[in-house]
Amino acid sequence: MKFAIQSRRDAQSNELMELAKTYLQDFGLTYDEEAPEIVVSIGGDGTLLHAFHRYSHLLDQVAFVGIHTGHLGFYADWKPSELEKLVLSIAKKDFNVVEYPLLEVKVEHHNAESNTYLALNEATIKSPDVTLVMDVELNGNQFERFRGDGLCVSTPSGSTAYNKALGGAIIHPTLAALQITEIASINNRVFRTVGSPLILPAHHHCVLRPVNDQNFNMTVDHLQITQGDVKAIVFNVANERVRFARFRPFPFWERVHESFVANE
Ligand code: NAP
Ligand code: MN
Predict the structure, then answer these.
(1) What does the pLDDT look like over 61-90, one tens digit per residue?
(2) 104, 177 in Cβ contact below 8 A?
(3) Are residues 193 and 145 both part of a single domain?
(4) How much of the chain is helix, strand and coil, in % rounded to 5?
(5) What is the pTM of this model?
(6) Are 110 and 221 in a shared domain?
(7) What is the extent of the structural domain holding 228?
(8) CATH code at 37?
(9) Is 184 close to ligand 1, i.e. is its CB under 6 Å away?
(10) Closest by alpha carbon to 126, among 225, 222, 195?
């Protein structure tokens, strides 16, 4: 089996990376940064986002696993002290693979060109001006004219990240869905938005259409991408899924409890 390791590049993560590399090679695995079958991310959830985007062209062959060198994460849910157990499980192929849904974002330009992105957490759209103004269309029907700071469209596994800070619901990642949350919408006697997060199933889609300005600041996970000459931005639950190697049960709701509710 071929593996690669992504480190947050702090001293502890780098040290663990060297250790994991040596152990895995001792067990006869091959270090291959170009075409790995297993990617070990060492750092935080942010490090796993980097690993995901680095290997997003290999999603059907790669399984990700995350070790946290800071606080417990949602993607980085292994402790450094469990490294040896992890290495042994990988070497013996003693793990299950779980798949999580992803978000597909297609940006269509007036010149008929388009760019498609995959998000593991979310995509956000903001305006370079003070207020973002966009028509929101659901399944081809005009839904609302949004005015405000921006919109966030998240995956189920991303629902515990930016989405949660925006008052969105936490969605279990077995549900193939996307969630749209508002970022400071303007609501008064003249301007109206729904005000609640919306959760769409896999066969629905959402389109944002610029009203005046055609230039936007878009984020896809940790990436910032400026978009000019935009005709429409189309959001779907992606056909692709991300695969995680699971060596022991650590149910999603327990991770939610550990991260947000438990007192140390
Ligand atoms: P960052 O600024 O270091 O990340 C913000 C925090 O989000 C970090 O504590 C990160 O964990 C955590 N996080 C990432 N994915 C998560 C998930 N699925 N569930 C729960 N927490 C999660 O930047 P980054 O590490 O590059 O991460 C980018 C993400 O930051 C974006 O995808 C967005 O979700 C999030 N973000 C949040 C806000 C907000 O809450 N107001 C604003 C902007 C962006 P680690 O420390 O383990 O990396
Ligand atoms: Mn981070």
Answers:
(1) 999 999 999 999 999 999 999 999 999 999
(2) no
(3) yes
(4) 20, 45, 35
(5) 0.98
(6) yes
(7) 102-240
(8) 3.40.50.10330
(9) no
(10) 225
Residue whose Cα lies nearest atom 25 of ligand 1: it is: 46
Kindly tell me if the per-residue pLDDT of 222 is higher than 80. Answer: yes
Classified as helix, coil or strand, 264 is coil
Give the tokens for residue 7: 């480190």
Task: Say yes or no: CB of residue 152 within 6 Å of ligand 1.
Answer: no
How many angstroms separate the CA atoms of 220 and 107, rounded? 12
Other C-beta atoms closer than 10 Å to the C-beta of 85 total: 13
Question: What total number of domains does the chain contain?
Answer: 2
For tokens 């469990």, the residue is: 82
List CB contacts of 191: < 8 A, sequence separation 6 or more: 145, 147
Residue 49, token pair as written in the block: 């986002």
Q: Distance between CA 180 and CA 215 in Å, rounded?
A: 20
Q: Are 36 and 3 in contact (CB under 8 A)?
A: yes
Q: Which two tokens stand for residue 241?
A: 């899924």
Tell me how far apart the alpha carbons of residues 120 and 103 are, in angstroms, rounded to a whole number: 7
Residue 262 C-alpha to ligand 1 middle, in angstroms? 19
- pLDDT for 264 equals 73
Could you please report the per-residue DSSP string of 187-214? -SSS-----S-EEEETT--EEEEESS--
Can you tell me which residue has the tokens 């060596």?
247
Q: Is the CB of residue 226 less than 8 Å from the CB of residue 218?
A: yes
Residues with catalytic roles: 45
